[in-house]
């Protein structure tokens, strides 16, 4: 048996096991370096100088250093939620604000906490508070998420996801 | 507010108000999602989920997929489009395109600083390599708030991403702040 055949879809959280107030597993990235920022900027073809031109970032814009891309940070909080729901639930809604800067040297931890849960149709909805903190505990990307999870013994969450399916008889 | 502090001008002029609700013609990504592009993305994100490359792990989705937020970056430079780096030759250019979305009218406000306030995403489906992505954008709202640091214009844009066959991928509500 090849190694690849042992990889299977990820079992995500099950609604019945979720408790309001619980923390979900965090996702940690870093320490971030200018190379990480360059790699992302190149992958998405972002030419904003504050991500690679130190003199411009600190001089013209008065920033403490070049900045970790907000466009990158958003995917980290999305990954946090997507990892938790796995391939059995669905990360329906994710919203966040870019409130703070992150710079090279930062180690970033995406975190989430369950704020509410309710049954909906044959599935369960769970609301989360989410964010991205650096090693000093400073929050830069606070937000919220709503996910759809299967109930134990219940049907799989429909994919592609159509919100109308939640209320279908 | 004390009488000697002057109220900032109202930047939401009739011309600005007139573009609220404006919709851009649908635009298509210049090329279909590429497997190597997906690899560079998930590696730059340091997201090692096998759903990005392993058909078995991605069975629920009908095969390997791009990261769920990938469509937001799919509207790339056309082959014959002007080089964006040319603008950097003007010494103080910050490298950011002031056209907030292709096909949407410019927000005519004399404020230079642009801050991305954040996003609210609603996710429906992963995009697959080989699929071409289409974007529809519209101004949902444009409004002014006067803070202690001066006036701020909030531009709220809804972006709807789908495959060119019309399968919904994600909807994004982006708040951009001009100040």
UniProtKB/TrEMBL annotation, chain A:
Superkingdom as given in the UniProt entry: Bacteria
Region (Disordered): 135-169
Organism for this UniProt entry: Plastoroseomonas hellenica
InterPro entries: HotDog_dom_sf (IPR029069)
SUPFAM superfamilies, per database record: Thioesterase/thiol ester dehydrase-isomerase
Protein name per the record: Acyl dehydratase
From TrEMBL, chain B:
Superkingdom classification of source: Bacteria
SUPFAM superfamilies noted in UniProt: Thioesterase/thiol ester dehydrase-isomerase
Residues in FAS1-like dehydratase domain copies: 30-169
Pfam short name (any one): FAS1_DH_region
InterPro entries reported in the protein's UniProt record: FAS1-like_DH_region (IPR039569), HotDog_dom_sf (IPR029069)
Name of the protein: MaoC family dehydratase
